[in-house]
């Protein structure tokens, strides 16, 4: 062996331990994501961006974990009927209620060292139960009629309905009473709460947070910085600083990953599937990153503005769905990784009905429905009605999302084939989720995604009570303003049915209404894209779902 080669091999041998040592010593993490949350309040403006970001610094009392199992985060034991913490109560008139006992973790504290107590629970209920407070998921607060405080750590929730998801406290956005109660007491109008809460005015206040990290810096629309919470009682996090960097254009987001300006891109609101697939085929990147594509409970769809006279006609809505070749769409854009959706219920979910009505790609049937609705082909191919109104609809989504913008172009072309003109108009994600959707500032179509828990009833997305209005300070996420008394009844019944087998037919009935009325256009269920550097541990877990919303304190360096 010549001396030059020996020297080269020696240099490589020395470099490898040095690289391993430098990675092991790495104590900062920069994560890229494509959206910045419109609000940091845990109960207002629910978005995937906020859910992802806040989980570094915030934990609910109890909810589903990454593996879709109910888990205590701020409590000591998940209440069940079997362990006696949940008890059925006869309310008279054939109605059943529940009492549900929780015990808060004895070491649980807010980020300023203030113990988390039942005072926080009682205060949170007093705020969330007022519709004008603007909480986006009010159903749980309305179900609770009383918070019975036993002592600083023990309390009982009295519920006016016996519903199977009684232990899920994700929607019960726990607030620090010692900080937020003075704010609420100082308001002349409860509807102004979101303007004055510390989460809006001073979000880096340590006592707002109760997770492994605290929010310490931010620039609205650009980044959030999290640092370890010294009062966290669980496993101490490895990283001394985690920065969530918002880059709304997903092509630019990928460029930042390749250049090393970000270490890792979040599995949600990160790279589009076509980007992830293309990167996974590059040998150089295969050496550097682990690629995972897990299917999640994330439903991509298009909401209708049902106040639009054209879209009030069910035949027009059905024609629009029949005019989309969704199978080819997902095959060409994402290599078939996204299963086509036929309703909001994921095939992995216990409530899924395999016999749900399906709308295949059928341009002939779509054209016939539009004919029946009174829209005939015009001189330029775009349909017009008897009054001369063109069948032209506005189509919105989040600006800069590469995959969504590709989908818009495909659908625009496919709808043109049946005589429908789609005019694309996109806005930044913060505006879209902060104003456009909840105040129905879209005239026709709005594409977005819903994220859900296992077998989660569509209370917040399909019930009449979840329609955002000025009266509820635009809380709720029923952006299409769908209102159906039978659906409302079924949502209530499925929640009250404690027997999983008896819930199945109720779920089937809800899906039948959904596919008949089409309050939204179902597109597909998203598969997340994880491009994780091989030195980062805890995110991709062999044999399990990637650590997504919880467990950031377990992330570390190999």
Structural class: alpha+beta
Rounded average pLDDT: 90
Computed Rg: 25 Å
Low-confidence stretches: 4-21
Terminal-residue CA separation: 34 Å
**How many β-strand stretches?**
22
What is the approximate shape? globular
Side-by-side strand order of the widest sheet: 8-9-10-1-11
Instruction: Classify the beta-strand content into a percent band.
Output: 15-25%
Individual helix count: 18
Task: Give a short account of the largest sheet.
Answer: 5 strands, mixed
| Helicity, as a percent range | 25-40%
Describe the structure.
- The protein is α+β, with helices and mostly antiparallel strands.
- It has 18 helices and 22 strands.
- It has helices spanning 3-24, 48-54, 118-128, 139-143, 177-185, 193-196, 198-201, 250-259, 273-280, 283-288, 314-322, 326-334, 363-372, 402-416, 429-436, 459-462, 485-496, 500-517; strands at 28-33, 62-64, 70-72, 86-92, 95-103, 144-149, 154-159, 213-219, 223-228, 241-246, 264-265, 289-292, 295-304, 376-377, 383-384, 392-396, 421-424, 445-451, 520-527, 530-533, 536-537, 556-557.
- Helix 11 (314-322) runs antiparallel to helix 13.
- The longest helix is centred in the first third of the chain and has 22 residues, at 3-24.
- It is globular, with a radius of gyration of 25 Å.
- The two termini are 34 Å apart.
- The model is unreliable at 4-21 (pLDDT under 50).
């Amino acid at each position: 062996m010549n001396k030059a080669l020996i020297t080269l091999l020696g240099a490589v041998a020395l470099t490898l331990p040095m690289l391993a040592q430098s990675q092991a010593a790495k104590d900062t993490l920069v994560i890229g994501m494509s959206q910045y949350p419109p609000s940091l309040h845990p109960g207002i403006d629910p978005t995937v961006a906020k859910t992802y970001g806040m989980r570094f610094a915030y934990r609910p009392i109890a909810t589903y974990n990454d593996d879709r199992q109910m888990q205590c985060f701020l409590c000591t034991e998940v209440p069940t009927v079997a362990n006696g913490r949940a008890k059925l109560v006869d309310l008279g008139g054939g109605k059943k209620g529940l009492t549900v006992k929780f015990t808060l973790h004895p070491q649980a504290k807010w980020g300023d060292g203030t113990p988390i107590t039942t005072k926080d629970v009682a205060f949170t209920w007093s705020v969330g139960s007022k519709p004008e407070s603007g909480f986006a998921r009010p159903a749980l607060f309305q179900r609770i009629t009383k918070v019975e405080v036993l002592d600083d750590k023990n309390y009982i929730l009295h519920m006016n309905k016996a519903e199977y998801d009684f232990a899920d406290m994700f929607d019960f956005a726990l607030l620090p009473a010692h900080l937020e109660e003075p704010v609420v007491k100082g308001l002349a109008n409860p509807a102004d709460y979101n303007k004055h809460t510390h989460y809006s005015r001073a979000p880096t206040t340590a006592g707002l947070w109760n997770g492994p990290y605290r929010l310490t810096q931010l620039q609205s629309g650009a980044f959030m910085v999290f640092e370890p919470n010294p009062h966290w009682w669980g496993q101490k996090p490895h990283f001394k600083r985690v920065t969530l960097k918002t880059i709304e254009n997903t092509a630019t987001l990928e460029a930042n990953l390749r250049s090393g300006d970000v270490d890792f891109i979040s599995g949600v609101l990160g790279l589009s599937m076509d980007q992830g697939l293309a990167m996974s085929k590059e040998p150089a990147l295969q050496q550097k990153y682990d690629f995972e594509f897990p299917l999640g409970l994330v439903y991509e769809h298009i909401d209708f503005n049902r106040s639009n006279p054209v879209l009030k006609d069910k035949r027009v809505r059905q024609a629009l769905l029949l005019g989309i070749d969704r199978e080819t769409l997902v095959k060409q854009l994402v290599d078939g990784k996204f299963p086509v959706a036929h309703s909001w219920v994921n095939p992995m979910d216990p409530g899924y009905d395999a016999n749900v009505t399906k709308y295949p790609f059928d341009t002939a049937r779509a054209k016939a429905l539009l004919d029946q609705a009174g829209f005939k082909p015009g001189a330029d191919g775009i349909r017009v009605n008897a009054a001369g109104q063109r069948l032209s609809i506005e189509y919105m989504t989040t600006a800069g999302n590469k995959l969504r913008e590709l989908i818009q172009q495909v659908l625009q072309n496919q709808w043109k084939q049946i005589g429908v003109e789609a005019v694309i108009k996109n806005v930044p994600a913060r505006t879209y989720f902060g104003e456009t959707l909840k105040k129905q500032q879209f005239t026709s179509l709005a594409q977005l995604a819903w994220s859900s828990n296992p077998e989660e009833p569509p209370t917040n997305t399909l019930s009449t009570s979840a329609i955002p209005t000025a009266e509820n300070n635009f809380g709720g996420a029923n952006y299409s303003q769908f209102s159906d008394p039978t659906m409302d009844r079924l949502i209530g019944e499925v929640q009250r049915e404690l027997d999983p087998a008896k819930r199945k037919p109720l779920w089937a009935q809800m899906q039948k209404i959904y596919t008949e009325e089409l309050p939204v256009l179902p597109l597909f269920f998203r598969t997340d894209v994880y491009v994780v550097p091989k030195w980062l541990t805890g995110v991709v877990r062999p044999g399990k779902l990637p650590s997504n919303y919880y467990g950031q304190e377990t992330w570390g360096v190999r």
